[in-house]
Amino acid sequence: MRPLIVANWKMNKTPEEAASFMEKIAKYQEEMNPNCDIAICAPFICLDICVEKSKQGRIKIGAQNCHFEKSGAFTGEISAYMLSKIGVKFTILGHSERRQYFAETSETVNLKVKSSLKSGLDVIICVGESLEQKSTAQKIIFTQLELALLGVDIADLPRICIAYEPIWAIGSNKIEWFKRSGEICMKIRSMLGEIYDSPAAASLVKILYGGSVNSSNLISVLSEPDIDGALVGNASLVSDEFLKIIECARGVKRS
Q: Considering its fold, how many domains does the chain have in total?
């Protein structure tokens, strides 16, 4: 399985900065096969230029959020349907920052998941525990998954990635924490089997790790057999560092 590297720019970059970044990445992809899948989740105002600049490459462009209704009186919101019409391929849903700062719940994540899938978008569902929840992490994550996937058919699982973000580990760089994350990701696979009452569900979904990923620790992250890729935050903002991350991912051999 090819590793999936997803850049999450968060609230950074103007359209001009995004265009410059994409040109550097696109040039890299023309010169060599990355042997991994690459995606960039840009702010709404940068999506159009990112889609335009990625047309000749292998980079998929995603959003960082969406609304669950197709249209309506929801000032300031963007729907999954709108995103699909400009060439966006997927969206991040339920990121820890959305939950913390914008009162996102697993119930609203579920509505967004179903709306996104219906609109033709793939989704990355974020789950994870805070420091206070660390001792009950598996229970917290199971509840987040069960609610986010409520009513989602098993046939749609290949269009879904799960990003595990241990919020308490963000800002750290300790190998033993990546090991623990690998164990949690293994548990997530068993949770999917339980939710869908099917062992096959575990193999249908890519599981990503998110939390202070950079070029110096990516190999440790991807060495965990149940981690299929990474959701990269700050380290994805600088093109040279992101290229190093891609180069690291290229060298990982996965079954």
A: 1
**3-state DSSP call for residue 41?**
strand
Q: 206-245 pLDDT, tens per residue?
A: 999 998 899 999 998 999 999 999 999 999 999 999 999 9
Whole-structure pTM value: 0.94
Give me the CATH number covering residue 28.
3.20.20.70
The one catalytic residue in 67, 95, 129, 224 is: 95
| Regions of the chain with pLDDT less than 50 | none
Q: Are 65 and 41 in contact (CB under 8 A)?
A: no
Q: How far apart are CA 138 and CA 179, in angstroms?
A: 15
Find the catalytic residue in 67, 104, 129, 165.
Answer: 165
Which domain range does residue 95 map to? 4-250
Residue 165 designated active-site: yes
